[in-house]
Amino acid sequence: MSSKLKNISLISLGIMAGIGASIGFDAIAQKSAGAPLPLEELRQLTDVFGLIKSDYVEPPDDKKLLTEAISGMVASLDPHSAYLDKKAYKELRESTQGKFVGLGIEVGMEDGYVKVISPIEDSPAYRAGIKAGDLITRLDSTPVKGLTLDQAVKRMRGEPDTKITLTISRKDEDKPLVISITRQEIRVQSVKSKVVEPGYAWIRVTQFQEPTVDDMAKKIAAIYAQEPHLKGLVLDLRNDPGGVLPGAIGVSAAFLPKDAPVVSTNGQLPSSKATFYAKREYYANSPISDSLAKLPEAIKKVPMVVLVNAGSASASEIVAGALQDYKRATIMGAQTFGKGSVQSVIALPPDRQTAVKLTTARYYTPNGRSIQARGIVPDVMVDEYADGDGLNGLRLREADLTKHLSNDKDKESAPAAAPQVDELEEAQRLAAIERKRKPLEFGSKEDFQLTQALNHLKGLPVLVSKAKPRLEAEKDDKLDGEKTEKK
């Protein structure tokens, strides 16, 4: 296609968590305002509140009104800022620790229904027979149609050992399936690894969590115990939505020179202007231990390929950007999501059980590149399958999101115009083909991109994609349009 398309189905990245963020947890501080409060607008807000109290058809709940006002105010800023009630705040803390109570499925929205992207292995949903591609139409007796993804996810979460009944629409099934599942604590293994063939290993980070650095160090040690003379390593960050910033710094530090700058941030507050280095104090969970210290020195020099795609976001982009800037690894795959902003989670008084997740800074690669709304462009573009890019080119990216933060170093990061009808038909045709494919298992023998990564490490020919990075394609379309207008 001549220009890249926005995705048809809006896929939410991450395990029941939406789009991953680089998260820092801060306690709230009394900060002096840089400008006087807008008294007239605040007075108008109180006037509207009083009007609702006095004139609305039913007496409203004061707390609910104010909570919704706060929520709407924060959500109006950008797609990643949000007010977190007690339940949402608790779930966010749990997810960064690598665990949560729920069903164990990666989900998105399609045609107003919750679509199962993938069940987590050995989770309650996996054992109950939930499959990738299933559409959830009811949660207990509540129709999903009309709910937001966040509302649906909240209903699927709950207390351990409680049950929920899902009504499932599955392709090739004549009748809806009704499946009862018992919620359990889900422990997400954020790092997977294996020796794919003699001399070559694969490490996959599915999400950056608090245990990620320690888990990866153990995986690397196990690989070297099996393969002392490692010839090449593939770091797989495909569909990794991000997570905690220390995890990204630690993963980068494992492969970069000691004390090298990994990422910098810049925002309005002095505390948001910072540089983070490949040092223990920036990534270690313990102030006295360093899980990376005992790794073989060879890990700093082993030839590397980093696999990324449109689902690689936030912390994944920090790692890919750092390794690319230092020319430590070859980045392969597709252009990444483009989430280059930092969210600080600020607990609110009086009880600090609620919080605001607020975008406080942009982050930059060691060479000063801003990833926001642009992403990381691979050194080598490789399609997801041997016969094409699958749905990767149709996925939603940061630049497609309403009210997305701009790239302060790239004024051309706005998304392309809406696709034309013929392009939509082509997208639908490709999506229909994609639904017939066997779901891709990363790290398997059928993993085309992994095969190309191994070919690169061995010095063998690589089947490079014919597709251009998204922003390059958009620029070409713009130039073509200008030429047409001149004619």
Automatic annotation (TrEMBL):
<feature type="region of interest" description="Disordered">
    <location>
        <begin position="466"/>
        <end position="487"/>
    </location>
</feature>
<dbReference type="Pfam" id="PF22694">
    <property type="entry name" value="CtpB_N-like"/>
</dbReference>
<feature type="domain" description="PDZ">
    <location>
        <begin position="89"/>
        <end position="157"/>
    </location>
</feature>
<keyword id="KW-0378">Hydrolase</keyword>
<feature type="compositionally biased region" description="Basic and acidic residues">
    <location>
        <begin position="469"/>
        <end position="487"/>
    </location>
</feature>
<dbReference type="InterPro" id="IPR036034">
    <property type="entry name" value="PDZ_sf"/>
</dbReference>
<keyword id="KW-0645">Protease</keyword>
<dbReference type="InterPro" id="IPR055210">
    <property type="entry name" value="CtpA/B_N"/>
</dbReference>
<protein>
    <submittedName>
        <fullName>S41 family peptidase</fullName>
    </submittedName>
</protein>
<dbReference type="Pfam" id="PF03572">
    <property type="entry name" value="Peptidase_S41"/>
</dbReference>
<dbReference type="InterPro" id="IPR005151">
    <property type="entry name" value="Tail-specific_protease"/>
</dbReference>
<dbReference type="InterPro" id="IPR029045">
    <property type="entry name" value="ClpP/crotonase-like_dom_sf"/>
</dbReference>
<dbReference type="InterPro" id="IPR001478">
    <property type="entry name" value="PDZ"/>
</dbReference>
<keyword id="KW-0720">Serine protease</keyword>
<dbReference type="InterPro" id="IPR004447">
    <property type="entry name" value="Peptidase_S41A"/>
</dbReference>
<comment type="similarity">
    <text>Belongs to the peptidase S41A family.</text>
</comment>
<dbReference type="Pfam" id="PF13180">
    <property type="entry name" value="PDZ_2"/>
</dbReference>
